[in-house]
Design a protein that fits this description.
It is built from two helices and nine strands. The chain is an alpha+beta fold and 179 residues long. It has a domain at 45-146: Immunoglobulin-like. The strands form two sheets. Strands 1, 3, 5, 6 and 7 form a five-stranded antiparallel sheet that branches. It has a four-stranded mixed sheet with strand order 2-9-8-4, with no helix packed on it. β6 (94-95) and β7 (101-108) form a beta hairpin. The chain is elongated. The termini are far apart. It comes from Caulobacter hibisci. Keywords: Signal. This is SbsA Ig-like domain-containing protein.
């Protein structure tokens, strides 16, 4: 046992010498940041405008859907649903600054029943920041024969939106690439 204890300093000095003879390490390589999200429950719809079963004025309508979690802006799905036709809407919604509410510019006709499915197709549909798809939901509403809404400002007021929460926004100006 005494011989093995005497050999220990020799082994340690040899391993240190081996470490000292290694070439210097190159500088660290930058790696893009990675975000790891904890498991989450599927997001669910907490509010809509119009509210389910509500009768609203026809014309320009800002369809609003709010979720219980922060959502990813590029994942959404509006689909046909039983109980009415789908309103005519622009292609993509806007996620508001609260990170939970989407707004979509639509047009409706008087005296009609409308229905919209949210995440009827879950692949590529509404999802939270952890990319967990939202639960499927449905909204059905009707339009009255009252005078139509003709301005975006009036439609936003009806939906309870502020001036900076328009359903459409201008694209940032293009910056010319330097040669």
């Amino acid at each position: 046992m005494r011989a093995s204890l005497l050999a220990l300093p020799i082994l340690l000095s040899l391993s240190g010498a081996a470490l000292a003879q290694q070439p210097p390490r190159p500088e660290p390589t930058p790696v893009s940041p990675v975000t790891v999200m904890p498991p989450t429950l599927p997001p669910k719809v907490t509010a809509t405008w119009p509210a389910a079963g509500e009768a609203v004025a026809p014309g320009i309508l800002v369809l609003k859907v709010a979720f219980d979690q922060k959502m990813t802006p590029l994942a959404w799905n509006y689909a046909d649903a039983a109980g009415g036709e789908r309103p005519e809407c622009v292609r993509a919604p806007r996620l508001l600054n609260d990170g939970k509410t989407f707004v979509l510019l639509c047009r409706t006709k008087p005296g009609k029943s409308y229905a919209v499915g949210f995440n009827a197709v879950r692949d590529g549909g509404f999802a939270n920041e952890a990319e967990n798809p939202a639960l499927t939901a449905q909204l059905a509403f009707t339009t009255s024969t009252a005078p139509s809404v003709y301005t975006l400002k009036s439609a936003m007021k009806a939906a309870g939106l502020k001036d900076d929460e328009a359903p459409i926004q201008e694209a940032p100006p293009l910056v010319a690439a330097k040669p």
